Predict the 3D structure of the following.
Amino acid sequence: MIAAVREADAAGTPLLVIGGGSNLVIGDKGFDGTALRIATTGFHLDGTRLELAAGEVWTDAVARTVEAGLAGIECLAGIPGSAGATPIQNVGAYGQDVSATVTEVVAYDRRAEETVTLTNAACAFSYRHSLFKDQPDRYVVLRVRFELEDADGMSAPIKYPETARALGVEAGDRVPLATARETVLKLRASKGMVLDPADHDTWSAGSFFTNPILTAGSTRPSSRAWRSGSARTSPRPPSRRARREP
Ligand SMILES: Cc1cc2nc3c(=O)[nH]c(=O)nc-3n(C[C@H](O)[C@H](O)[C@H](O)COP(=O)(O)OP(=O)(O)OC[C@H]3O[C@@H](n4cnc5c(N)ncnc54)[C@H](O)[C@@H]3O)c2cc1C
């Protein structure tokens, strides 16, 4: 992987790093450069410490941590793509995001031409953002390390109100890990967010939605605009409707 990146950089060839390709739209003219598809594998669990190779399928890795009885990423089940892409936009859903559990990201630094280990703080995570998005052509993520929690088979405290409602618990409660994962998968499926090859409404070219961050002053006009907007009067199929990100 590093050799391919070095070769492209030495030749001055544009480089496109592709994980699962779930959040990537390629123009009809194609990409004039080197496309590097990350297909590395590696799932290593040492107590509560998890290391994933960048090419691991994220949702499968989540399932394995749940099977292992470890909490921290169970609500991120069903998010398409690779483990290596999760730090890029600080992947998150249903009250969890990876910034809460990532301890280190091992990456190839194309500027320094060396492999570096970035601490959680160095990743500068914020809502769907990170150092990697700030400097998009600099790092290729090789491995991601997480610190999970052994809570005797229970989930991390449920934070997201919709998940708590679906589980019939209060926000802050813990539930069995498998129940948390399955509930999130059901909620995602009910919104067409889990790929079903037979259901066109679940086919998706990506998800660019982020929840709007409103100031106290801007809340009222936005709500009015939404109520009087086209969403209520001109329903469209779910696959084309703006989905609210959990
Ligand atoms: C139906 C659907 C639902 C989704 N739901 C959510 C959600 O709930 N929460 C959420 O946060 N996201 C969600 N997403 C977005 C998507 O799952 C994430 O962005 C995911 O991390 C993309 O992974 P990928 O491996 O497919 O990345 P790709 O689509 O292959 O790449 C995405 C970007 O990351 C870069 N990249 C990928 N791998 C690496 C690497 N190893 N090193 C450096 N750069 C890399 C690529 O160059 C590209 O810029 C959803 C997408 C879809 C289609």
